[in-house]
Write a structure and sequence with these properties.
heterodimer; A: mainly alpha; MetI-like fold; 2% strand; flat; B: MetI-like fold; 74% helix; globular; Carbohydrate ABC transporter permease (chain B); cell membrane (chain B); transport (chain B)
Chain lengths: 316, 275
């Protein structure tokens, strides 16, 4: 009696544990499936529109293509050696670097000043904050067209104001010495809203108590800003620098609308060269080689910024 | 108020007013010019203010180019990209936060690394893909490549991580599955983050330039950004036509900014402050 009882009992326990194990395995399996199902839409889209094109770009950069995009011949590293031997490549790299140097520091310093001045308890600051945020709504094409009107050599109002001041008119977009500067002015204006919003919220995140205690200790507003607020703001400034450099290296719209890379290649930035090579000359192979070089440059720049600059950033 | 403080705040106001004029002038010039009659806008020396609210220019520009169709196209595309990105990103972020599955850490690293890939390197193959699927000059070609975003996944993941974990445990005890938990609990609680992502995505899609330039060729499929930049290539006698077009195009973005500035600020800064 007792033996049979025990046998039945252990039998029940055995089947129970098998059922339990199966159930557990099933629930683990279901958990895995749920994870992949929730991820599936994003992963499929990334695979088709990001990872496949990345590999395809590398593949195309070693080939010549016909105008319809079909691979015509394997050429090895020829596309790259031709690039590095051409003066147009080095010109567009130089133009892009110059454009970055003209727009990024100016944009960040202007944003910092405006954020610092409007982050005071003076009256009417919410009005100024709204004004300085406005450019964030601008697109590259509307901004470029507005400035095309302002820069117009005869009817543009900028030259009219210059003549009122007794200065000679400037050939903003036509003179190769001025064209990149003109595009940079327009770009700094267009990006000022984004920079301002980011830096102002960074300042607001620091909190009033630090400023108050600095004031009680007898620190003036200028000293407080440079010695206390700026170091605390450095994570935001660092983030903004990384994003701005990436943006500057990827600029296209304003150049396409205002100058088409001219005059004499003085505004031909990197992405414009890619566009011209692939979609004007229909050289998808060399266009891909150019795009690949841009990718490597951006990776290198971002790595340098994180490796060397971030060390100076003060995280709370 | 002491004299020193008065002088100091006066200097601040002067700097702010000069800066505000510099920021506003191009916009004010655009808006004011679009209300000018053709004679006023071509007068020399240039006039600063229109003599009245002349609306003929708006009418003329709407007759000259199908601006309404451009704006409609941009709306359809931006709304679809916005809805799609919010959906795919919230689903992926949910999986990364609430589901334990093999390869989670690796897949998250892969998603993050895609933020490093500049869009330009995928441009040529994507163009060829869209072309081979015969999606050129059609809505899917303008929408589908942008339906997933690593930035969106990252933003929402950071937000989901802040939600109280006890809610999830309690829902699980009650036998609530992942789908119900996602739809009934996580999404409603994440409304602020979803709104930030939505505003950010909408503005980005609305302002897209290079891709629509490549994949659209007919006037009926142009987005507003391409359509407006084509105004300047037309043979124009009066410039206020172009500026009236720009004004019409700017209005939706400015309205959205006034309504959604707070959301946008929250969205933009979430990434920055966390480093």
């Amino acid at each position: 009696m007792s033996t049979t009882h025990r046998e039945v009992y252990s039998g029940i326990r055995a089947t129970e544990s098998v059922v339990h194990k199966q159930a557990k395995r099933l629930s683990v399996w279901r958990e895995h499936a749920a994870g992949y199902l929730f991820l599936a839409p994003s992963l499929v889209l990334f695979a088709v529109f990001l990872f496949y094109p990345l590999i395809q770009s590398i593949y195309l950069s070693f080939h010549l293509t016909d105008p319809r995009g079909h691979v015509a011949a394997y050429v090895g590293f020829d596309n790259f050696t031709q690039l590095f031997a051409s003066s147009a490549f080095w010109n567009s790299l130089g133009v892009t670097v110059k454009f970055t140097l003209l727009t990024v520091p100016a944009g960040i310093i202007a944003g910092l000043l405006l954020a610092a001045f409007t982050h005071t308890k003076l009256k009417g600051m919410s009005f100024f904050r709204f004004i300085f945020s406005l450019p964030v709504a601008l697109s590259v094409s509307t901004s470029a067209i507005i400035w095309m009107m302002l820069y117009h050599p005869t009817t543009g109002t900028l030259n009219y104001f210059l003549s009122k001041l007794g200065a000679d008119p400037v050939q903003w977009l036509i003179d190769p010495a001025w064209s990149l500067i003109s595009i940079s002015i327009m770009t700094v204006w267009m990006n000022s809203g984004f920079n301002y919003i980011l830096l102002l919220s960074g300042l607001q995140g620091i909190g009033d108590d630090i400023r108050d205690s600095a004031r009680i200790d007898g620190s003036g507003p200028v000293r407080t800003f440079f010695q206390i607020l700026l170091p605390l703001l450095s994570p935001t400034v660092f983030f903004l620098t990384v994003v701005s450099v990436l943006n500057a290296f990827q600029s296209f719209g304003q150049i396409h609308i205002l100058t088409k890379g001219g005059p004499a290649g003085s505004t031909e930035v990197f992405v414009y060269s890619i566009y011209k090579e692939a979609f004007v000359n229909y050289q998808f192979g060399t266009g891909s080689a150019l795009a690949l070089v841009l990718f490597l440059i951006i990776l290198l720049l971002t790595w340098i910024q994180f490796r060397f600059v971030e060390k100076k950033v003060h995280y709370q | 108020m002491t004299a020193a403080r008065f002088i100091r705040s006066s200097i601040v106001y002067i700097i702010l007013i000069v800066a505000a004029v510099m920021v506003l002038y191009p916009l004010a010039y655009t808006f004011l010019s679009s209300f000018m009659t053709p004679e006023e806008s071509s007068a020399y020396p240039p006039k600063m203010l229109p003599s009245g609210l002349y609306l003929g220019t708006f009418q003329e520009v709407l007759e000259l180019v199908p601006l309404g169709a451009f704006i409609g196209n941009s709306f359809v595309i931006s709304l679809a990209i916005m809805g799609g990105q919010v959906l795919t990103a919230s689903m992926a972020a949910y999986a990364f936060v609430y589901v334990t599955f093999r390869g989670r850490a690796l897949l998250f690293a892969v998603v993050l690394s895609t933020m490093m890939i500049p869009w330009e390197i995928t441009m040529i193959p994507n163009y060829l893909t869209i072309k081979s699927w015969e999606w050129l000059d059609r809505y899917p070609g303008l929408i589908v490549p942008f339906l997933a975003s690593a930035f969106g996944i990252f933003l929402l993941r950071q937000f989901f991580l802040q939600l109280p974990r006890e809610l999830f445990e309690a829902a699980k005890m009650d036998g609530c599955g992942h789908v119900r938990h996602f739809v009934r609990i996580v999404l409603p609680l994440s409304r602020p983050a979803l709104a930030s992502l939505a505003v950010y995505t909408f503005l980005n899609a609305w302002n897209m330039y290079l891709w629509p330039l490549l994949v659209t060729s007919s006037d009926t499929m142009r987005t507003v950004q391409i359509g407006i930049s084509m105004l300047q290539f037309e043979e124009m006698t009066s410039w206020n036509l172009v500026l009236a077009g720009v004004t019409l195009v700017l209005l939706p973005s400015l309205l959205l900014l006034m309504l959604g500035l707070k959301q946008l600020v929250g969205g933009l800064t979430a990434g920055a402050i966390k480093g």
